[in-house]
């Protein structure tokens, strides 16, 4: 009954928005549309604010820099503003449709007074809530471990986003697991964003143009994950001149090159990064025993501008982690390793049907592979084994945006992805028994979604985004279909303050089985099947946003409640490493049997005071939250706090331009300790064979808190401009006051002397292991 | 000059990072103050025609001075009863260090529910119940030895197949004994099996494989296979204890395994099973 009522209300709202939008559209006559690009490179700019002061109305440029706004006949002043860029003002006499492409100058060199005058996007003027946008420029100035800039680690400093273990780049958004984040790079999903066991992510920001994280109030165009959408767009490459950037750090170096292919028409950008710890350590290793590790990233993009109506983009990412070993001893040679990595590719075609209707069609490819390789040779007998798992996607996505009036726009589209899961594939070669065996098991599924979104503005006060997504999933034994209503609204009080509310129902058809608290590549992506139902969630959020325009501050306070169902996990004790005693028989491992399903609750309050521009920029974030899980087959069926349930989470980020040549930056983070499970007692357990062994009684799961985590990182950047280039030295300190933060706890036996009896006794003690002390770093970057 | 600074910082970072495993990064933490009173640990598996045996011990707090050995509870009142309220008090047997009752004195019937109550003079009281599974009506077939290889070592697994009963959730365990030399009367080699269920294989042929043994096997004459049908509590207890034992060396890489138990206010298991024995000659 409640569901029927809910859908009746939703349909009424959708109908009302269509009717209202149509009525608005009839009143309007002419359209101003165009592309906003960066002066000097013609890089399209995402999220540029296009504002008509006379009407107190405006719009923003989309992911391709396109904007469109329809207005009544008249004379208007149009302001184009973007964080860190000069404001451009255009006078337009509107008596017909106008095409207005605008180039805006990066404001890095401009004085603060000029930049602060910009009318940047205001939090209080949008209906979207629970969204985090960090300018790439700020990401490059935030101090990090070993000076390696990292998008995910910067996002961890935002309220509602929790980090995993020390140094890890994993993100846990509003109590969601690591698989509940949809990471999209140029429309392509990325399944594993970690390098070096999670200490670095694959997104270092060099090739990125924009980053936005949505934690709740999801617009209907997004689907497939429960907790967050991290959308990243790669740079297109300069269409005007050759340029680039090179950086040398302690563990990795990087290089970006961008240049026009056909001036003002086509350009490319290529960026790469590689670590060199393996090369540095090689000479120090014994000749007959070698261990090596490295990772690399490669981003590339080309684009071609066919004119106003059509643009084509081809972009890709390729990254690999390789851990290898080699040993030679008395005629027994052994070598092997672990390799994992992502490859993504997107071909996108932008087409303008008219000045009001923009569309994008994307062909998407994504491939994540993990493999283990082992080769032994003893007395001319070879034994080789290769295990691999992964997920491969091929998809088609179509989005259309129709700007009917400044008060009303429609977005609609569909996406269909063919996933090919490979939980295991084995190749064995054994010359002793003349055997070559190949076992590959794949699971094909198709995930699809179609959506409609209505964005409307009523009398400049009330903004709403009402949407509906229909998702469908096909597996050979079972198909699933679901309606996912989305709603967000913001009411402005006129003093740059607004109240916002949102509701989102989400479905997730792919799952990550993870058995550890750290981001290992051994985690396994698996599909929904007849036995494994899709995860789903409902999230409600309510908030207040206030802009302090003169000071360039924005403040938001949000409360949220999220209920998650059918969340998955490994059955207690099951994990990939214990699939079987040997990988040869891994095909017998039924992951469905080793999976448990449960529910989760997450709720909290988030506070964010942010300043994106100015001599002093940064933010202060605070989160008060609770996250609980319940699985029938774990913790005796009782609710427990999730490992990354964090009652208090504080982050302070400051970037201060001391002089035009020196930038100081610092972060301080504080978080309640992770919830962990500690044994309370020991007892002698017996199985059917009456074999005895020492068992541990854990009481309740995760009912012990580690010590609180806090850390300060600082950095200083020295910039120097030379003729056609700019160099930057950065010296940084990670964990500046060398706080011994807990990484994990262990129980160890200690011998103590008992003075009364005169003998040594064994005592079990609890020990904290820390990972990173103070770590200095130095990096050199040259921009040309 | 710049090169020297870079080299210095690089060296310093490598040195600092390499200290991670040293004592400087370990710190003793005060464990939870929660006082843990020793709990009663009960172990009892009942089956048709099998002597009833209940072992009772005490658990030990994990932190602090460690006492050696297991503390037996010899003065408890142990009662087993069935659904028709018939009950029996089990006396303590010093030899087996458990409370014992002959099968004839209190017959265990398949398909019936049984209750266990334990009370100690110092006021500890635990209870549990379980249902004895119905007889196993299946055939064990295709008994064979499989040669396996791991990291160049050759090993063997014992494998066999049987048909699962359709329409119900079943839990199983198996054990085996190899009669290596019939004349020596007692030279056995045991293969170990994990507990398993018919999850996603309801009514199908179940292929069972033992854990491997990595040593050379002498000529095998016969194999005795015991297939157990377990109640759910026993399966969960067996599975979680085995997983905890397997995981013990993996440290923080895995989540700790919380052992399942059906003992109210205590630890351990009151489980039940039915068995099927088969003796097969290996070709």
Structure at a glance:
The complex is a heterodimer of chains A (784) and B (283). With 784 residues, chain A is mostly beta strands. Chain A contains five helices and 48 strands.
Report on the architecture of this protein.
- The complex is a heterodimer of chains A (784) and B (283).
- Chain A has 784 residues and is mainly beta.
- Helices cover 6% and strands 59% of the residues of chain A.
- Chain A contains 5 helices and 48 strands.
- The longest helix of chain A has 26 residues, at 2-27.
- The termini of chain A are far apart.
- Residues 109-118 and 578-588 of chain A have low confidence and may be disordered.
- Chain B has 2 helices and 20 strands.
- In chain B, the strands form 3 sheets. In chain B, strands 2, 3, 6, 9, 10, 15, 16, 17, 19 and 20 form a 10-stranded mixed beta sheet that branches. Chain B has a 4-stranded antiparallel beta sheet with strand order 8-7-11-12, with no helix packed on it.
- In chain B, strand 9 and strand 10 (98-101) form a beta hairpin.
- The longest helix of chain B is centred in the first third of the chain and has 17 residues, at 2-18.
- At the A-B interface, strand 24, strand 41, strand 42, strand 46 and strand 47 of A face helix 1, strand 1, strand 2, strand 3 and strand 4 of B.
